[in-house]
Request: fold
Amino acid sequence: MKIHTLIAAIIATLLICAGTVWAHPHILDLSKGQEIVPADFIADLHGADVVFIGELHDHEGHHRMQLEIIRALRENGRPLAIGLEMFQNEYQDALDKWTSAEMTESSFLQVYHQNWSFWPLYRPIFMYAREQGIPLIALNIPREITRQVAREGFASLDPKQLHGMDLTGFACIIDPTYKQFIRRALGLHGRADDDSFSYFCEAQLLWDAAMANNLVAFLKKKPNHTLVVLAGSGHSWKYGIPAQLESLAEFDYRVVLPEVRGRIDRGNASVAEADYLWLDFGEEGWQIWE
Reply:
């Protein structure tokens, strides 16, 4: 018994050490309902035109995950670009100057803070894009447009405000699951009466449609690129920007979402929402692979 106990202890110690050295992300393939190895995961993403990677904006682990996927795709050789929910498209020139090293970090931060926050969390991604010369693409529209729609509805917009976007048949007719998501968000923004719900729903869809239009415009100019889109999980999942993309053009895409317990997790996620779920096992769940 003592020998068996000693052997068991040695094995346990080796497993712990191995887990520390060889820790890797846990990636759930939702089409198969099982975890897959990182190499297969990256190989599949490598063949896509667009890779949506969701996030909680203030979660450091999610941004580490995004960077590791970007890095792995870059090392696989296909030209990359990074699409950003965080930037309004009128600031594209600043992003171009950043990636071409024509702006100092302090100068760029003035522009960045006009668009977004959480710089310390996003900085490694922006720095990597600059070091590698990866184009950064501003996908969003001016906030005043979505705010106007949330208050007064899509019909209140002047066509000039849409800058030529293809919004044929635009209406708040959505899947019940997405409607439930919209209603949860609406609880933070106003009363759940018919008008406020309809207007907020239109604002969300306009947000997604605008980003889809902008990414299509980029891919038509650069058809040999994979566009990695960084956006909140509520925009990245298949009911968000991907659904709007499908209405505009035929591009092959994948959706990767981080597990967020109680929202989208291994117990309730389905292939209708994403292709892959990056499972959260605490610190190990967000470690890089090598």
